[in-house]
Design goal:
The chain is α+β, with helices and mostly antiparallel strands and about 450 residues long. It has one domain: Chloramphenicol Acetyltransferase (2-Layer Sandwich), CATH 3.30.559. Strands 8-14-13-11-9-10 form a 6-stranded mixed beta sheet, sandwiched between helices. It has a 5-stranded mixed beta sheet with strand order 5-6-7-2-12, sandwiched between helices. It is globular, with a radius of gyration of 21 Å.
Amino acid sequence: MTTPLRIPFPVVDEVSRHCLQEEEPETVHVEVHLPGELDPGRLRKAFLEALHRHPRILMREAPGPWYRRRYEWELTDEPDVEVVRFAPPGPGALRDARARTLTQAPPLTASPPIRLELVNAPGPGDTVQAGAYGGPGGADGNGGNGGNGGADAGVGAALLLTVNHTALDSPACLRILATAAEIYGGRDNSAAAPPVRRSAPAQAGAPDAPSPWSPPARVAPGTPDPGHRTGNGLIVSELPLPHRPKGAPYTVNDQLMVATALTLARWNRERGARPRPLRITMPVDDRPRDATMPIGNGTRLVEVPFALTELDTCDLPGLLHRTALRTRALKSLSRPQLGRGANLLTAPWAPVAARRVLTRALRRTAAPLLSTTLLSNIGRIPYPLDFGEEAGSAHAVWFSAPSRMPRGLTFTTASTAGRLHLSVRWSRALLGRADGVHLHDLFAHHLHSTEAAP
């Protein structure tokens, strides 16, 4: 019997492993809607074959003594558990499956740390549509529902991936799902070529950017729902892609970033919070999207700052232009995924048990300096996610990132079939469902306002 291959945890995986807590599971939610239904047996076979074509996902945390210097992934030849599940039909099946993605993180000790759930023919109570730029929509993680029905019109199947974020991120899982679609439908699901961008300026950022050492604003507390103060809540909605004038020096990502900043500035102002500059974490992913894409946590995090004077001004075109300079400059910088401090913390200079205690203590100490929120823009989905003639291609794809305290709020966006798919996810210890709806509406309103900039 051969000894399984072991791989030391990369920096991102180890920091996440140190900071795990049961109250707020570290899950990534991926949701794909198709116009036709899927055959359960064929789907299970295709997904398992996709896992074997990307063997780096077939892994579990290797056991070891408390004094070991490294956490290690142990690669397996086959899954340890049943990976594909099928939701029982009935009203609210999609809503309940979505709730499970927020509360049931796949364990790291069983290969692979990912689950796929199929919901064929979502029924009443599963709508997820928002209005043009204001009406609340979606279904939250605790079973609430408030859409008007449009987004699920004609939905034949929904696929929900639950990912343990300590092991994998959403772009890697989307790559695996694209491989499964190709196997299932027998059609090419290669990634489309990325859009051509203008070259980034060499400057390190706009000259009036606030200091990265000043404590940024926190998201002001809302009104948590009684009896639901652990875990995350979630709203998903569909919006029009924001218009961008031809030749504009900013991108849709910059419009999303500005909308996020204006949303949080207004939210905090409405609640009388002390004005502070904002910092918004933005994941950047430079991996190829073809079959050679490295599987794991491959994004690096950068922080986009906003000064108080920028958020109080009516100069929206100027704010968009400055944001474009900052995001492009930050993307062009070469730096470790979580910074050099994280590299030092994860070096094997002490047993993992000791470094876990230190990492958690430093996280608590540094909480006031953490960014205000996270905006993860997946961008245009590069794969057709075509499951063949009967099931068809994806017409809606949502993602949501974990929303742990002290940030307690994340915005995640992706575009499919010419529409923007938005997820607002929050910590129930900080906000309630009504707060999530209001933040969603503020975001949609401010995103629409960026279209008017000349």
